[in-house]
Design brief:
Strand order of the largest sheet of chain A: 3-2-1-4-5-6-7-8
CATH architecture of the largest domain in chain A: 3-Layer(aba) Sandwich
Strand content of chain A: 5-15%
CATH class of the largest domain in chain A: Alpha Beta
Number of domains of chain A: 2
Oligomer: homodimer
Distance between the termini of chain A: 51 Å
Order of helices and strands of chain A: EHEHEEHEEEHEHHHHH
CATH topology of the largest domain in chain A: Rossmann fold
Shape of chain A: elongated
CATH superfamily of the largest domain in chain A: NAD(P)-binding Rossmann-like Domain
Structural class of chain A: alpha/beta
Helix content of chain A: 40-55%
Number of helices of chain A: 9
Chain lengths: 258, 258
C-alpha cells in the first residue's frame, strides 16, 4: 500500500523521514516550512515534493499529513492547517498527547513516533527504528501500521500516557547517557588526554549493559562504595561546581540502588 | 618475552586477567586471596598457579607481582608483602598514585591499569583493552610494556595525575552512562513497557556520539530548550525525588553547555 504524504516541518526528523518515505515507494507531495527556504532545502532532497509556507492544504493530494515539528508548535499548526476530506493528521513527538490534534480539521488523527535520535549530519537506518503508533480510529491505525511497516519491521501500539513515560526513559537512555560522554570528553580534553583511549571502554560498557542489564553490569567506585575514590574524584572536579554536583548525585543514586 | 607472574586479588580484574596472561604464554605462579577459598576458585581456572593466603612471597619464582585488589587495601598489602629480589610490584587501579607502593619491599614499582569494565559473568577481549602504564624505572617500564603488548596492541604511558583524571572521565563514560540506562530500565519496568524498544535508540546514540562527538550528537528536550517537555517529565518523575533531581540537574547542564 503506497501513500501520498505531506510533511510539515524541516527539522531533524523531517530531514530523514521524507527521503526514507520516498525510498519506501510513497509519494511526498508537499513539504511545509514556516521559512520557505528551509522547505526548499528539504524538497531538494526529494523527487516530487513542493515547498510550501502556507497551511492551506485543501487542494493537496496527500492522505497522510505528518507534523514533524517542535512540540511547542504542534497544537498551533494542528489548529490552523486546512486539510482535505478523509485526511489523517499525525505528529511525531514522544511527549505530546494525541488529543492535542483534536481541534484540527482532520478526519482522523494519530501518532507516528519514530523512537530514534536524529541529527542532520548522520544517516539513519529506518530498518532499526521502532515506530510507536496510536489512533482512536481503527482504519486510520491500520494505515499508520502499514506506513510504519514499509519503513521498519518494528511497530508498537502505545497509548499517550505510556508514550510519555517511554519518552522520559528515552531521555535517560539517549540524551543523558550522551551527556555523560560529553562530560567525559571535556575532562579528557581539559587534561590534554586523547578521548580515543576511552572508546573501547564505552563500547564494552554499553554492550555489557544491554546483555546483562544495567544493574548487574555496573562497576566502579560508587558500586564498590569506595568512599575514598569518590571523595578524590569529587575534589578533582571542584573546578566546576555543577559537574561536581552531578558526580555526587549520580554516585549517591548508584550507592542507594544496591 | 614470557614472564612469571603472581596475582594478588580474586576480584573482577584478577578473574579475567589471570587466564588472559596464561593464554598469552606467561606463567601465573600464585594467586593470593585473603580468603583461600576465593583464591582456589581462581586457580581452578588456571594451569599451574597455587592458591595462597599469606603474603610471604620470598620463595616465589615470579618476577612481576600484580596487585589487583580494591583501592583501599593496596597500600596495606604493598607494605606487608615480602618479595624476592629484583621483583616488580604493580597495581591495576585507576585512581591510586604510584608512590603508594613506595614503602614496599619491591625493587621496582609500577602501574598496570587495564582501562575496561570487568564483570565476572562476561568475557573480556583483552585485544581491545588499553593498558595505562607507569614506572619510574626504565627497565621495569619496558617490561611492563612488553607484558601489556602480549595482551593488547594498545598501551599508553600515563602519569599518576593524568591517570586519576582519566579515571574520573571513565566513571562518567562508563559507570554513569550505565546508570542512565539503569534508570531508563526502571522507568520502563514501572510502566510495564518492554525495554527492548529502547535498544536501537541506545545503540544509535552511542555510535553517533563516538562518530560526531557528544556535543554535536546531542538531541532531545534539553538540547532544544523545550521547557514544557522538561517540566512535564520532571512532574512525571515526582514519585522519586532523587531521580527527578537527576533529571533536572543533567537537563540544566545540557542547556548550559550550548
Amino acid at each position: 500500500m503506497k501513500f501520498k504524504i505531506a510533511i510539515l516541518g524541516t527539522g531533524n526528523v523531517a530531514w530523514h523521514l521524507a527521503p526514507a518515505l520516498e525510498e519506501a515507494g510513497h509519494t511526498v507531495t508537499e513539504i511545509y516550512g514556516r521559512d520557505i527556504m528551509e522547505a526548499e532545502k528539504l524538497t531538494g532532497r526529494l523527487y516530487t515534493a513542493e515547498a510550501k509556507s502556507d497551511l492551506d492544504f485543501s487542494d493537496s493530494e496527500a492522505e497522510v499529513f505528518i507534523l514533524a515539528v517542535s512540540d511547542q508548535v504542534i497544537s498551533e499548526l494542528a489548529d490552523e492547517i486546512i486539510l482535505p476530506e478523509e485526511s489523517i493528521l499525525v505528529h511525531t513527538s514522544g511527549s505530546v498527547p494525541l488529543d492535542i490534534l483534536g481541534y484540527s480539521s482532520a478526519s482522523y488523527t494519530g501518532i507516528f513516533y519514530p523512537l530514534q535520535t536524529f541529527s542532520k549530519d548522520r544517516k539513519v537506518d529506518f530498518g532499526d527504528v521502532p515506530f510507536l503508533l496510536e489512533s482512536e480510529d481503527q482504519a486510520a491505525l491500520q494505515k499508520l501500521k502499514k506506513l510504519a511497516k514499509s519503513l521498519s519491521p518494528h511497530q508498537y501500539l502505545i497509548k499517550s500516557r505510556d508514550r510519555m513515560a517511554l519518552h522520559v526513559a528515552a531521555v535517560f537512555a539517549s540524551n543523558f547517557s550522551n551527556h555523560m560522554l560529553r562530560l567525559s570528553e571535556e575532562i579528557m580534553a581539559r587534561q590534554g588526554l586523547d578521548f580515543e583511549m576511552l572508546k573501547p571502554l564505552i563500547i564494552e560498557t554499553i554492550s555489557k549493559s544491554l546483555e546483562l542489564g544495567a544493574k548487574r553490569a555496573q562497576t566502579g567506585p560508587a558500586r564498590r562504595v569506595d568512599l575514598n575514590t569518590l571523595d578524590t574524584h569529587f575534589q578533582f572536579l571542584n573546578y566546576n561546581e555543577q559537574i561536581a554536583e552531578i558526580y555526587k548525585l549520580i554516585s549517591q543514586d548508584i550507592i542507594d540502588s544496591y
